[in-house]
Design the sequence.
């Protein structure tokens, strides 16, 4: 007597797609509620937030000090960028990288001279930071050279292909 095993699928406990739709809907409402638009009415706080952003203070630190969410800080910054109240992200980041690069270069020199860190480690850090700063500023970060090797026989053949035209000059007296 042989028994045949059958497997039955259990019905899904919940519809994942429906759950995702609900979460997206909730997030949309929260984003509207916590976008910083209410905080935007407090001009003094907004000015302080934007000053801190311009000074390079991290969003989480600003949020903690201002007692608002990080998302509120992001909303304030995005609106300020669109309205032109603060420089765009790329420009602010370039300034920060410039300050960091200068500070690290000075620290690296001190550490190398004191024998704390191998010169090769500091050099690599400086090179990466300088490269990224140049890239952000739209400068060239590499050089590509195209080299074509020409044999003398090819040059001679090219000269022979060129047809020379003689022009007779007329001389007229004054």
Sequence:
């Amino acid at each position: 007597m042989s028994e045949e095993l059958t497997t039955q699928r259990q019905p899904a406990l919940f519809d994942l797609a429906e759950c995702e739709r609900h979460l997206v809907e909730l997030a949309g409402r929260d984003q509207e509620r916590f976008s910083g638009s209410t905080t935007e009415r407090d001009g003094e706080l907004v000015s302080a937030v934007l000053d801190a952003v311009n000074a390079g203070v991290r969003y989480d630190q600003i949020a903690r000090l201002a007692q608002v969410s990080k998302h509120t800080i992001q909303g304030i910054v995005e609106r300020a960028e669109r309205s032109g109240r603060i420089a765009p992200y790329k420009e602010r980041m370039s300034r920060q990288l410039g300050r960091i690069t200068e500070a690290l270069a000075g620290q690296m020199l001190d550490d190398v001279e004191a024998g704390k860190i191998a010169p090769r480690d500091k050099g690599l850090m400086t090179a990466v930071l300088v490269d990224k700063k140049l890239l952000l500023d739209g400068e060239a970060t590499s050089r590509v050279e195209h080299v074509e090797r020409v044999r003398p026989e090819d040059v001679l053949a090219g000269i022979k292909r060129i047809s020379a035209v003689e022009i007779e000059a007329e001389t007229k007296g004054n």
Summary: Residues 17-86 form one domain. Helices lie at 16-33, 43-54, 59-66, 70-83, 89-113, 119-136, 152-161. Residues 89-113 form the longest helix (25 residues). The two ends are 130 Å apart (CA to CA).
